[in-house]
Amino acid sequence: MTATFHDLKGTSVFITGGGSGIGAALTEGFLRQGAKVGFIGRSDASEFVDRMEAETGNRPYFVQGDITDIPALKAAMEDCAHRNGSITVLVNNAANDQRHSTEDVTEEFWDWAQAVNLKAYFFACQAAVAGMRAGGGGSIINFTSISYMMGNTGYPAYTTANSGINGMTRSLAREFGADKIRVNAIAPGWVLTQKQLDMWAEPEALAAHLDRQCLKEHLTPEDIVASTLFLASSSSRMITGQALVVDGGVVVTG
C-alpha cells in the first residue's frame, strides 16, 4: 500500500466479484484502508475471507451469488448495507471476457454477455443511489477495459458492453451529480490475473502487448488498486463522468 486515504476508514464499500482476480486485490486494498467491505461472487470465497481477516485484521463480508440475478444482487447489497452501513462506495468490477467470434454468437450468449458485463452494473448503480443520496453523496466506480478503445477482435459482445459502460457512466454522473454522487470508470489494460495466465496469456501475445505499452512491465491486479482508492476517496471529489485508463500507456485518450 503506497498511499493512505484517511476518509475511507469506516466507509461502507461494496464490490462485485471481490473474491478473485482484480476484485480480490481491490477488497484487500480497501480493507487495508480500514473500510468495511462487502462483496458478491459466484464461487465460495470463505477461505479468502479468513485470509483477509488474518492478514489485515479487517474481515470482509461475503455473499455468494450471481450478479446476473438482479434480485439476488440487490439483496446482497441490502444485506451488506445492513451490516456495514449504507453503501457509499460501489465498485462494479465483475466481468467476463470469454472469447468468441461473431459467427458463433447466439441470442442466448449475447444476452448473457450483456447481463454480466453491463446490465448488472446499471442495476447495482440503481440500487446504491438511494443510500448514497441519503448519506450526502458517494462514489461509483465502473470497470470497463481498453479492449474497445483498441478495436480488439475476439470478443465483440464484451467490447460492446465495455463501450456501453462508458456511456452509462457519463449519463449517470450527470444525473446523480446534484446529489454529490460521483460516477467514474476505470479502464485497465491487460492485467495478468491467474485466469488470464491460465487461459489466454501466450508468450507471443504477451510480448506483442508489452511492445505496445510505453511502460515495459506487465500489469498486475495490484496496479489497479491505488487508482480505485483515489476515485473512491474525497481526494477526487471534483472528478466525475471520467474514464481513467490504467494500461501502461497502450491507448491515448483526450
Characterize the structure shown.
Belongs to the short-chain dehydrogenases/reductases (SDR) family. Keywords: Oxidoreductase. This is SDR family NAD(P)-dependent oxidoreductase. This protein has 254 residues and is α/β, with parallel strands linked by helices. It has a single domain, classed as 3-Layer(aba) Sandwich (Rossmann fold). It contains nine helices and seven strands. The chain has helices spanning 21-32, 46-56, 70-84, 107-134, 147-150, 156-176, 194-199, 203-212, 222-232; strands at residues 12-16, 36-41, 61-64, 89-92, 138-143, 181-188, 243-246. The chain has a seven-stranded parallel β-sheet, sandwiched between helices. Helix 2 links the parallel strand 2 and strand 3 (61-64). Helix 1 packs across helix 9 and helix 4 (107-134) runs parallel beside helix 6 (156-176). It is globular and about 45 Å long. 43% of the residues are buried.
